[in-house]
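Input structure tokens:
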């Protein structure tokens, strides 16, 4: 997760890379950074979107639902990172919808606040942002996320834009990474693919550790691990591979040469090249498993 150690790692990495950019020259650095914004721009099918509310066991969740303007399509449940549902994830969801999916990006903090709880990732990096979110983070348990996921899947299956002949995909970022496994565990007959991007706490000693739940799912998985997360917990990748093999679940487990947060377009460590590699794998998995 984006805790203080992760933020320290990323701050050091950013400082080093900024010095490298300075050595290259301001003009070249500008050219190197600018395409990152373009990469997230939606392209492909025309889309429509709307804010939505979904009844859960604990109240009313809010989310962002975006889908191709015509036809029925496979659904995807998208879990944002620690900073929550915001414009960056609406943009990311819209890009996925333009690729042919009906995408629900959810506010996992709905019990405490409607989205956006924070305007952008930079706000999480402030003392005020962390103080605001910490109680909300601590309130989210595996059991609550599993119950929420069931409500979201049921809601998606009722939408006219969703083709229920296909299974549902789910993807999550940072703390949303393990939520993809919880969703696959909560609705095994409906979740066909789960993608964790720089996911946090995927391997732990509790009975609800995501790696221990793989055998109770029917999904195929991608676990895209950040290099600094791997450095702190080098055994996690092996535990995930072994758990997937024991559960007979297809799983692509890989460490990327990028920092925690690299797939999120408003993160300071966003890495277009490595994010696009995960994007390509994600689309290929959805084409096969949904």
């Amino acid at each position: 997760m984006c805790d203080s150690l992760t933020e320290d790692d990323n701050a050091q990495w950013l400082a080093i890379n900024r010095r490298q950019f300075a050595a290259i020259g301001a003009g070249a650095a500008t050219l190197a950074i600018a395409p990152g914004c373009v990469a997230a721009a939606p392209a492909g099918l025309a889309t429509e979107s709307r804010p939505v509310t979904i009844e859960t066991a604990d109240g009313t969740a809010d989310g962002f639902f975006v889908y191709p303007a015509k036809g029925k399509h496979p659904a995807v449940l998208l879990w944002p990172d620690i900073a929550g549902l915001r414009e960056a994830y609406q943009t990311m969801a819209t890009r996925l919808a333009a690729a042919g999916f009906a995408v629900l990006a959810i506010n996992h903090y709905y019990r405490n606040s409607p989205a956006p709880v924070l305007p952008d990732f930079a706000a999480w990096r402030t003392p005020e942002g962390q103080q605001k979110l910490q109680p909300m983070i601590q309130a989210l348990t595996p059991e609550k996320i599993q119950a929420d996921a069931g409500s979201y899947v049921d809601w998606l299956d009722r939408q006219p834009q969703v083709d229920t002949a296909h299974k549902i995909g789910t993807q999550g970022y940072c703390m949303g990474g393990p939520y993809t496994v919880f969703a696959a565990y909560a609705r095994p007959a409906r979740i066909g693919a789960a993608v964790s991007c720089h996911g946090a706490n995927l391997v732990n000693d509790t009975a609800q550790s995501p790696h221990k739940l793989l055998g109770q799912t029917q999904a195929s998985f991608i676990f895209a691990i950040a290099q600094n997360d791997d450095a702190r917990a080098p055994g996690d990748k092996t535990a995930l591979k072994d758990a997937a093999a024991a559960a007979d679940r297809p799983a692509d487990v890989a460490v990327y040469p990028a920092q925690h947060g690299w797939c999120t377009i408003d993160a300071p460590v966003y890495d277009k090249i490595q994010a696009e590699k995960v994007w390509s794998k994600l689309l290929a998995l959805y084409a096969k498993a949904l």
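The mean pLDDT is 90. DSSP finds twelve helices and eight strands in the chain.
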